[in-house]
């Protein structure tokens, strides 16, 4: 089970501001990629990025991911564990070891 | 504290496959936006998307977000809660209620 | 004036397949970022990408950009030249020389 | 042949500012998706976007696409026409008519 405090806090934020009306799954999916682009911006010209700024942008990506999971009644950690199990069987350790091309599709 | 099972499972997956060598913060940030684009693909032409397919892509986005947080030694739920506190003070409920423009920068 | 052959060919493709119904500016904007993510995929784990594959993905990004420009009746080369003039005055050569941070917002 | 004025103007801008050093294909590909995210931002909460603001962001996406094409010595309109020919044969008008799913991969 994911941390309920996070989900509760996010739901409170949204409810108190009446923002649920904007949070269709489609709008949240757009928001995830928009914030992901802002995250990448910190790595646009070189690989050194300010840890605090990355944390800030990563928080935005995660926030929209969590809201999208909630909107679709998905357990955000559950879907990660499910996918991870499929990845394990799809890319057996002995075959995928050290081969990035093996998992361009993690 | 976020769910340790998830982080442990992700770390095992990566260690067993010797994939850490590919997981620079910059590469993980690229991976987050790449997977976010695949997530959005399910909403490309209309707002109805298959819940299972969305869960699958959302899991990929979250996976790379979690790996990036881990690579930078960030508590993935902690940064969300921190940002949420700042959002609350930035957009007071009484002022931001029902106004999307107020939070184009959640 | 941009190459009319390209625009004409794109319009023919769309008209012959009755695809204009899917080409709202919003859907085309989503398509641009989706294809941009696929383009970046070729640089996900290292900086060496297959030139032909990059050309293929870049063509998709450009195609949706051109369709979006056309949907909004924008001259695709005209807007680039306009923006370029503003960038020039915003980042005078003598001040911006060799400074990437100066133009994180090209 | 694409409009040479655009390419010449872009090359001048970059040369005068000594920015070529930042323009590896990988960095330009990141820049394309970053700007594509900013473009989508104008459609984040609804489908109505300010035409001028969209033109501005679209110009940024195109600029980085043109620079990437130039960096790889690709004719930006040529690759679009090539891809278009392949799309035509892949999705015959009679089969693809009005079917968006037919070209989720344009």
Automatic annotation (TrEMBL), chains A, B, C, D:
Source superkingdom: Bacteria
* UniProt signal peptide: none
Tell me one Pfam family matched here.
Answer: MazG-like
> Do you know which CDD domains this protein is assigned to?
NTP-PPase_RS21-C6_like (cd11537)
Protein name as annotated: Nucleotide pyrophosphohydrolase
Q: Which organism is it from?
A: Brachybacterium huguangmaarense
